Every structure is written in C-alpha cells, then in structure tokens.
C-alpha cells in the first residue's frame, strides 16, 4: 500500500475524495450540523409554546413582527424541523456516515464497491440539503404543510413546498445510490472467511437498512413527481372535485384523492422508521458486546428478527391512516400486522437486555449511552402499541401523545445510539480518545432533559392537546390543566441544547489532543480494530487484507489467554 | 454469462431472433384484441396477460433471467413481493372504504 | 490496490459488482414505476368515468413506437453478443441501430405530445391525461438517459475495448440490462394507457 502514496491536493483528498472514510466523515459533519440546525428551529418554536405571543429573545429581530414568532413561520419551522432531523440529520448520520465508514472496515473490504458513485451520493445529498435551505428564502418561506406534506394543503401551499419537493428528489436519488453501494459491498466484498453468519450485527443492520431504502424510497419519489405535477402542471392527482380554498371553488379538473398521497408517503415513511432504528440497534449491539466482555445473547435470533422486521415494515403503513375511514376488515389487517411487527422488536430488545446478564460491565461513555438507549427505546416502542390499534388511535391521533411516542424512538433512542457510536469509534477515526468526564456529563444531562422534554408530551396528549398548535393549546378548555407543562418542556429543551455544549467542547478538545498509540483501546474483536491502524491508511484500509476465522463477538472465550479473541485470529 | 463459448453465444443469438418474432407477433395480437368488444374487465385481463407474457420474454431471454444467479433471484423476489403490496394494498383500503 | 470483482465473478455469488449493482438499481426502478402504476389503479378505481385511452391517444403511433423499442432491445442484446464473439465492427453496427431506433421513438413521442397540445389536451385537462403525461414523461426521461449512455459507449467510451475488453463487454451488458428494462416498462405502459 505504501508504494502508491502519490501527492494529492487538498481538493482531491478531502473534498472530492472517493475514499469511503473521507466520504463517511463528510456525511458525518454535514449531518451533525443539520441536526444542530434542526434542533435550533425547535428551540425557537418552544419559546412560542411556553410564552405565547411574547418576543423571542436573542433572535427575535430576525422573525419580524416585533420579535414574536408569526404563526405561518411556526408552521414552516415545524415542517422543516421534521424534514431536517429525519432526512438531513439522522438518516445521513446513521446510514451515510456510520455505514460508509465502518461497513467496509468491518467486512475487510478496501473500499466501497463503487467509490465514485459513493462520492456522487454524498454530493447529491449535499445539494439536496442546500435546496432545502434555499426554501427558507423563497416568498412565503420554507415548506409549511408538515413534514408529511399532506395534500390538498400541500398542493395549494406557497412556493416553499415546490422547493421541498425538488430537495426530496435529490435526497431520494442520493439514498438510492448509497443503498445500492452498501448492498453490493456487503454481498461482493466480504473478505475470505467472512460468511453471512460471521458478520457483525452492525453490518447486518446496515444491509437491511439499505434494502429498505432501496425499495421503500422510490414510491415517495413517484409521489413527489405527482405532487410536482399537481403544483406545476395543474393536474389533480391529489385534488378531489369541488375543493374550496379561501372561499373560492378551485377550477382544476378534480377527481383525484388526497389518500393516494398518504398511501405512497407512508409506504416510504413506515419503513423509514426502521431505517432510523436499525442502524441504532447495530451500534448498540457492538458496544454492549464490547463492554460486557461476553458474546451477544442470541446472535442468530437477532439476525432473523431484523430480517423479519425489515420485511414486515412494508405491510404496516396504513396504521398511520386509521382515521381516514378505511373499512374495518382492512383496518383489522393492519392492526394485526402492526401487532406482529412488535414481536421482532421485542426479541431484539430482549436479546440486548439479556446480554447484560452476568457481564462485567465497563461503564464508559459509549456504554452509558447504550444503556440509556434500551429503556428509552422501550418507552418509545411500548407507547406505540395504543397507536397501532384503531380503537385507541382514534383518540390519540394527531395529539402530543404521538409526538412523544416517536420522539422517544428517535431522540433518546436513535440519537443516543448515534452519540454512543461517535464516542465508541472516535478513537478509530482520529487515533485519539475522547474525554470521559465531559462525555459522562453530556450523557447524564442529555438523559435528564430528554425525558424532561418528551415525558410531559404523553400527559398533554392523553389530555387531548393537538399537535401543530401555534399557541400550544391555550384556546382549548380541556388543555387548561396541562398547559403549565409547556414551560417545563421548553426549559428542558433549552437545557438539552446547553448540554450539547459538553459534546461540542469534547470533540474540539479531543481533536486537538495528542494521538494515543493504542490501536485497539476498547479491546474489541471485530477486524476494524484489530487489523488496521487508527485511523486506517488512506486508500486501501489494511496493510494486508485479513481473513476471518470466527464469529464477531468472541469475548471471554474459556481457556483463551486474553478476554477477547479477534475475528481474524486463527485456530 | 461471463464464460461462454462462441457456439453458446451463437445459440443465444438464435434465441434472441425467435424472441423478437414472438414479441412482434404479440404486439399485433394485443392491438387486435383491443378492437374486439370484450367489455372492460375482459379487455383489461386479456391485455395484461399478453403484456405479462411479453414482459417475461424480455426479462427471461434478453435480460438472461432464465439462468441467473441465486442472489439476483432473491433480490427480485423481494422486489416483486413489495411491488405487489404497493400495487394492491392501497387499492384494498379504498375498495373497503366505498363499501362502508 | 484495486477493488475486487469489477471484471471477474466472485466465486460464491457468481456475479461481478456492476451486474449486481444494476439489478439492485432496476429493483428500485420497479418500485418507482410501481408507485405510478399504483397511483393509476387508485385513481382509476376511484372515479366512475375513466376515459378509454384511444379516445385521446393514437394507437397506430404507439404500436410503431412499441416496435421501435422491441427492435432496439434485440439489437442491444446483439451488440453485446457481438462483443462476446470478438466482433467489434458488428457491435458498432448494432449499437448504432439501437441508437437510431431510440431516437425514432423520441421523434414519434414528440409528434404525439405536440398533437395532444394542439388539440388542447394538457396534463391539467383530466387525470387520465395527467397520468399519461407523467408516466410517459418519466419513461421518456429514461429513454433519453439510455441514449446518452449508449452513445457514450458507442463513440468515446468504445476506446475501452482496446485497453480492457472484458470490462467493456461487462459494461455493455449492464447498459443492455437497463435498456431492456426501459423496453419492459413500455410493454406495460402501452396497453395500460393506450388500449384499456
């Protein structure tokens, strides 16, 4: 490898690189910036919710109207918060960054199967994110019909919606290229001896995620094209006949159906939930096995549960649509599939929990986040059950209960897992260790304030407070008893924002710190730690590509001389 | 398809020509059928059957699916399953709706 | 260090990377057009009166176009077979014919579209015409994409035959797979939009 180290300019090495590690880091940095931005939007909205119609401090002058957040802009911020967090933040971080960087390393490949396509995928994502940002500057502001963009509202919305659709087309294309790349890499570039049942769980999760993206995203692209036609060419795919907007009957041909959008949208968006959570499972599994110093409990059960989960995720989507008045028979079908899909989720969570049993647990920062993930995801999952049954969903639909439920899955769930992954693999990517004290402070404060933000949402939702209300429910009599919680949640959200300073400072301080000589600081078994330097070499990853002889989690093997046996160790 | 002898390739070429003739013939058939008065349902069913035969011919012989590797089969099996779900499950909800 | 299995098949899967990649890409394309076909069925069953395609569209022109695409598909696969027989001249001929037929398809499509506009039939006229223009429009974009790629390997990209014939043959096979898929979509679009 050392022979073909030719001179590369800054641009080819760091900007238009085709090295999967650089592209992974590009994905990581871009998506972290977007996560912070999306979170900031929510912190602004939470001010309006806590103190309705009073001027927002610090940035009020940007909002106009005496510093009060206008209701139209509130809608924009809400729609963009959802879009940014999911499509520009969590998925690119979980799939683009972690997948790109660690899948080739964990399977012993020298790069992704199609490096140029990989770079194209990142730049497509980057352009998509720029287009999304442009939305804020067009007349009428960014998209304001919710992240779900339900027509007919989205069909008649301001120009921001068109920009949003173009942005989505780019992002979908990007994820298509990325998922083809991951799939081919895992199928074709596994090193000698790396059979399917020796793959680390993280690779499995990325593999299944790629399949979900490959097959679930295109129908949304089709729906996006149809909505663009509705908005630009005057078609009526999603517009029923005789629609009245602002007191005027629309002149379009009519005959379309808003439900068509909902079907095509949720055909993507339910598998998308598993796109968000599967990589999180993968990261958590790696960290738990490593820090309990024992094999993961039920490797095969985990793999089969995940495959089953991925498959089932395609036939549950209409549980988002119970109140559209579908018949009871078909409603019963979707309730049944929804209850069935909770089984593999429970299998996975149980396997992770049982893996802790009898382990000598190391409570380092990544492990703390992993341990925080388990109950938080558990709450998110269990509160989803009432939403999967039509009888209870009809009461809870579109309330803060729903918001609380999916945020428990994604925020203290997936995002905790992503933080865990960052702390766990930071030494791999940089050759430096993060500061444990700052990391622990980050965890404990995040853990407390996450719950402070999301737990009261269940209370408000059960009381019947609807989501997407500019005044936080002030005008509803039934909300009066739970209105005080708005301030609790908002203060928690701002403190949660402050807690992230520990993370940012930790990253900067650690990056400026000295390199440690340790290649394998966690004493891990998977080959990204044992057979290459930290950080790995430029193009090529390994001095010599390792062969694999054993499963991924051989910790504390009886009779072995140390408590971990690398995958590439013979015998 | 990587290691074929010239004889095998020549044999394949014969197949391609035969498939082409079949496709052209079926195109004429499907247009012809559309001029018969079979009612809407009958017409749709027949036209889709002919189109499926044509599609299978293209996929099996031009795209060589008739002797492809197991990985491709699995991928396509999953895709076809999801495709059918996408095609018919939304429909079933709207049909159930109109009956209520 | 080069990425393995770009030309040779991986022993246990029997595939080279590009071929698996293009099949996965086609799988997602199936879902893309699947979304539109699903929309077509949903819209059609949702209304009482759905026009017959022939009321608006020209079946003879579409039949001609079907013939164009089917023929181009067979010339495409012949161009690949010619490379397998080490006959580069025949490859050039067959790929050239493929391009001509594809361009013929576009010309016919252009006349179809302009005659619709001329009669005052626009996507906004009704949902049948809307879905007709959307589906055929997306298909035309795929045809144009195919033309660009085939042209590339017909003219500038053909140099690769001199340096790396195995890889070039693989690329033509991959382009062919994509092109047959475009043909396949049209085989379904034709009866669904024009005949039913």
Overview of the structural elements:
The complex is a heterotrimer of chains A (571), B (100) and C (196). Chain A is an all-alpha fold. Chain A has a single domain (17-234, 256-530), classed as Cytochrome c oxidase-like, subunit I domain (Cytochrome C Oxidase, Chain A, Up-down Bundle), CATH 1.20.210. Chain A contains 18 helices and two strands. In chain A, strands 1-2 form a two-stranded antiparallel ribbon. In chain A, helix 4 runs antiparallel to helix 5 and helix 12 (365-382) runs parallel beside helix 16 (436-463). The longest helix of chain A has 37 residues, at 71-107. Chain A is globular, with a radius of gyration of 24 Å. Chain B has two domains: 1-68; 69-100. Chain B is flat, with a radius of gyration of 19 Å. Chain C has helices at 17-46, 53-56, 59-84, 88-118, 127-154, 160-163, 165-195. Chains in contact: A-B, A-C, B-C. The interface between B and C is large, with 48 and 49 residues.
In a few lines, what is going on in this structure?
By secondary structure, chain A is mainly α.
Provide keyphrases for this structure.
heterotrimer; B: 100 residues; mainly alpha; 2 domains; 3 helices; flat; C: 196 residues; Four Helix Bundle (Hemerythrin (Met), subunit A); 7 helices; 79% helix; elongated
What's the topology here?
The complex is a heterotrimer of chains A (571), B (100) and C (196).
Chain A: H1 10-15, H2 20-50, H3 60-63, H4 71-107, H5 115-134, H6 153-156, H7 160-188, H8 201-232, E1 244-245, E2 248-249, H9 258-292, H10 299-312, H11 328-356, H12 365-382, H13 385-388, H14 390-396, H15 400-430, H16 436-463, H17 485-512, H18 527-530
Helix pairs in contact in A: 2-4, 2-5, 2-17, 4-5, 4-7, 4-8, 4-9, 4-15, 5-7, 7-8, 8-9, 8-10, 9-11, 9-12, 9-15, 10-11, 12-15, 12-16, 15-16, 16-17
Chain B: H1 6-35, H2 39-62, H3 70-99
Chain C: H1 17-46, H2 53-56, H3 59-84, H4 88-118, H5 127-154, H6 160-163, H7 165-195
Helix pairs in contact in C: 1-5, 1-7, 3-4, 3-7, 4-5, 5-7
């Amino acid at each position: 490898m050392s022979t073909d180290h030719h001179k590369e300019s800054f641009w080819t090495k760091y900007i238009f690189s085709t090295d999967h590690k650089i592209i992974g880091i590009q994905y990581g940095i871009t998506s972290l910036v977007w996560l912070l931005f999306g979170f900031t939007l929510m912190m602004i909205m939470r001010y309006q919710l806590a103190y309705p119609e009073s001027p927002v401090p610090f940035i009020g002058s940007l909002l106009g109207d005496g510093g009060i957040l206008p209701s139209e802009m509130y809608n924009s911020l809400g729609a963009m918060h959802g879009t940014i967090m999911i499509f520009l933040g969590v998925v690119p971080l979980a799939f683009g960054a972690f997948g790109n960087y660690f899948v080739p390393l964990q399977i012993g490949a020298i790069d992704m199967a199609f490096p140029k396509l990989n770079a194209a995928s990142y730049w497509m994502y980057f352009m998509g994110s720029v287009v999304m940002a442009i939305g804020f500057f067009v007349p009428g502001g960014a998209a304001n019909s919710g992240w779900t963009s339900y027509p007919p509202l989205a069909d008649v919305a301001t120009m921001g919606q068109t920009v949003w659709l173009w942005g989505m087309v780019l992002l979908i294309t990007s994820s298509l290229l990325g998922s083809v790349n991951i799939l081919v890499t895992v199928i074709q570039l596994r090193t000698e001896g790396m059979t399917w049942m020796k793959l680390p769980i993280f690779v499995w999760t990325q593999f299944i995620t790629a399949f979900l993206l490959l097959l679930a995203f295109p129908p949304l692209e089709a729906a996006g094209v149809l909505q663009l036609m509705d908005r630009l060419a005057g078609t009526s795919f999603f517009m029923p006949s005789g629609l009245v907007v602002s007191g005027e009957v629309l002149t379009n041909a009519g005959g379309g159906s808003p439900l068509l959008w909902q079907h095509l949208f949720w055909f993507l968006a339910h598998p998308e939930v598993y796109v968000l959570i599967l990589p999180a499972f993968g990261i958590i599994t790696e960290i738990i096995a490593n820090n309990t110093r024992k094999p993961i409990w039920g490797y095969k059960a985990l793999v089969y549960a995940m495959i089953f989960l991925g498959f089932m995720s395609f036939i549950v989507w209409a549980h988002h649509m119970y109140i559209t008045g579908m018949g009871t028979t078909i409603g019963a079908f979707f309730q049944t599939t929804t209850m069935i899909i909770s089984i593999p989720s429970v299998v996975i969570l149980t396997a992770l929990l049982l893996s802790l049993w009898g382990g000598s647990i190391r409570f380092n920062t990544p492990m703390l986040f992993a341990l925080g993930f388990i109950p938080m995801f558990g709450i998110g999952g269990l509160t989803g059950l009432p939403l999967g049954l039509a009888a209870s969903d009809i009461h809870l639909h579109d309330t803060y209960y729903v918001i609380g439920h999916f945020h428990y899955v994604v925020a203290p769930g997936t995002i905790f897992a992503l933080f865990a992954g960052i702390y766990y693999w930071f030494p791999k990517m940089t050759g430096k260790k993060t500061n444990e004290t700052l990391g622990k402070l980050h965890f404990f404060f995040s853990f407390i304030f996450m719950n402070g933000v999301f737990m009261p949402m269940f209370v408000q939702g059960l009381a019947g407070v609807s989501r997407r209300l500019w005044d936080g429910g002030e005008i509803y009599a039934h909300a009066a008893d739970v209105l005080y919680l708005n301030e609790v949640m908002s203060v928690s959200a701002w403190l949660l924002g402050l807690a992230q300073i520990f993370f940012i400072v930790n990253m900067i301080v650690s990056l400026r710190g000295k390199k440690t000589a340790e290649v394998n600081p966690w004493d891990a078994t998977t080959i990204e730690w044992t057979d290459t330097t930290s950080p790995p070499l430029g193009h090529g990853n390994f001095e010599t590509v390792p062969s694999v002889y054993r499963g991924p989690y051989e910790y504390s093997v009886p009779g072995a001389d140390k408590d971990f046996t690398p995958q590439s160790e013979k015998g | 398809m990587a290691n074929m002898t010239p004889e095998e390739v020549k044999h394949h070429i014969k197949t391609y020509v035969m498939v082409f003739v079949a496709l052209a013939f079926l195109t004429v058939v499907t247009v012809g059928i559309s001029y018969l008065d079979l009612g809407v349902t009958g017409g749709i069913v027949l036209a889709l059957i002919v189109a499926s035969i044509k599609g299978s011919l293209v996929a099996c012989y031009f795209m060589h699916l008739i002797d492809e590797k197991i990985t491709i089969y699995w991928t396509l099996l999953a895709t076809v399953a999801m495709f059918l779900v996408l095609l018919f499950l939304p429909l079933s909800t709207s049909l159930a709706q109109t009956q209520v | 260090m080069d990425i393995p299995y770009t030309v040779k098949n991986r022993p246990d899967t029997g595939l080279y990377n590009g071929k698996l990649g293009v099949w996965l890409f086609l799988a997602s394309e199936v879902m893309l057009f699947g979304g539109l076909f699903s929309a077509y069925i949903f819209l059609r069953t949702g209304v009482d009166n759905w026009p017959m395609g022939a009321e608006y569209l020209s079946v003879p022109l579409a039949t001609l176009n079907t013939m164009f695409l089917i023929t181009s598909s067979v010339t495409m696969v012949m161009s690949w077979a010619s490379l397998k027989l080490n006959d580069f001249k025949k490859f050039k001929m067959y790929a050239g014919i493929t391009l001509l037929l594809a361009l013929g398809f576009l010309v016919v499509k252009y006349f179809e579209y302009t005659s619709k506009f001329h009669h005052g039939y626009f996507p906004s006229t009704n949902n049948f015409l809307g879905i007709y223009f959307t589906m055929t429009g997306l298909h035309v974009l795929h045809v144009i994409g195919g033309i660009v790629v085939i042209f590339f390997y017909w003219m500038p990209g053909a140099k690769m035959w001199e340096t790396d014939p195995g890889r070039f043959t693989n690329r033509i096979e991959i382009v062919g797979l994509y092109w047959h898929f475009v043909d396949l979509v049209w085989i379904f679009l034709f009866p669904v939009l024009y005949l039913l």
